[in-house]
Specification:
260 residues; alpha/beta; binds nicotinamide-adenine-dinucleotide
Length: 260
């Protein structure tokens, strides 16, 4: 029998939950009984997912703020009062998304910031703001969404890979600091997941169909991941059955690379 997730009595803050992977995680945690604070920098998206959760009979509120802005993060988390589960999902692969691949040697140092600010400082800001309430309740869960790029490297996306690797190193350090309060800290490292950001408007062009075919050959399970493929593991890590699992980074990637 699969382990019960059972999150009644917990408030979960899911960042970047207005679409894609974050939305699927928010729905899964709400279905498991958590009261979900749906964060997104785009308020309308956060409101829509809040309404979707309520429409399914779950409990949710909208918590729009920019995870890169410390004052907004602190005010947003203070407003919630108590966060027992933090899902650091908000992230980006630059302004143009995952398709904007560029050799590092052609990048301008001024561009790197846009990767580091969301994917690393965003995680640090939200973790810093949420930890005091977890320490007070002597328990909590922090799960951060990183990328296979963090474990394996990614040619032409080096600043993104660096930010995600930074986030997983940060999480391992925090795991060591807060284990004494029964707070676990883990990461999930994603392969390519079908979300609005990775679904190109020109996906049907012959060139892109061929590119995708070549890309999928690197995956043992020959399909792109779906947001729900990620949400199941995150739900488990957030639940009571995962109380002795901490400091880990789990690949969710159709076998693109292995964790040894
Ligand atoms: N989709 C993939 O193939 C893939 C692969 C590896 C890792 N990831 C990681 O998974 C996570 C989710 O990816 P996705 O494809 O669902 O992304 P997405 O771009 O589809 O959705 C991300 C959401 O985060 C919000 N957001 C962006 N910046 C924010 C900020 N500063 N503050 C608050 N919200 C913000 C956006 O408005 C958006 O609604 C990201 O961390 C991403 O780096 C995704």
């Amino acid at each position: 029998m699969p382990p019960e997730i059972g999150l009644e009595g917990w408030r979960a803050l899911v960042t970047g939950a207005g679409q894609g992977v974050g939305r699927a995680i928010a729905l899964t945690l709400a279905d498991a009984g958590a009261e979900v604070a749906v964060n997104d920098v785009v308020e309308l998206r956060a409101d829509e997912v809040r309404d979707e959760i309520r429409g399914r009979g779950g409990r949710a509120e909208s918590a729009p703020f920019d995870v890169t802005d410390w004052d907004s993060v602190q005010a947003g988390v203070d407003r919630l009062g108590d966060v027992g589960i933090l899902i650091n999902n908000a992230g980006n692969a630059g302004v143009d998304g995952f398709s904007a691949l560029r050799p590092f040697v052609e990048t301008d140092p001024a561009e790197w910031d846009r990767y580091i600010r969301v994917n690393l400082y965003g995680v640090m800001n939200c973790t810093r703001a949420a930890l005091p309430s977890m320490i007070s309740r002597n328990g909590g869960r922090i799960i951060t969404v990183v990328s296979d790029a963090a474990r394996y490297g990614d040619a032409f996306l080096a600043p993104y890979a660096a930010a995600k690797a930074g986030a997983s190193g940060f999480c391992r350090s925090i795991a060591r600091e807060v284990g004494r309060y029964n707070i676990t800290v883990n990461c999930v490292a994603l392969g390519t997941i079908r979300t609005p950001t990775t679904s190109r408007p020109d996906a049907d062009s012959p060139e892109n169909v061929e590119r995708e075919k070549q890309q999928l050959k690197k995956y043992i399970i020959r399909r792109k991941g779906e947001p729900e493929d990620v949400a199941g593991l995150v739900g488990f890590l957030a639940g009571p059955s995962a109380s002795w699992i901490t400091g880990q980074t789990y690949p969710v990637n159709g076998g693109y690379s292995f964790a040894l």
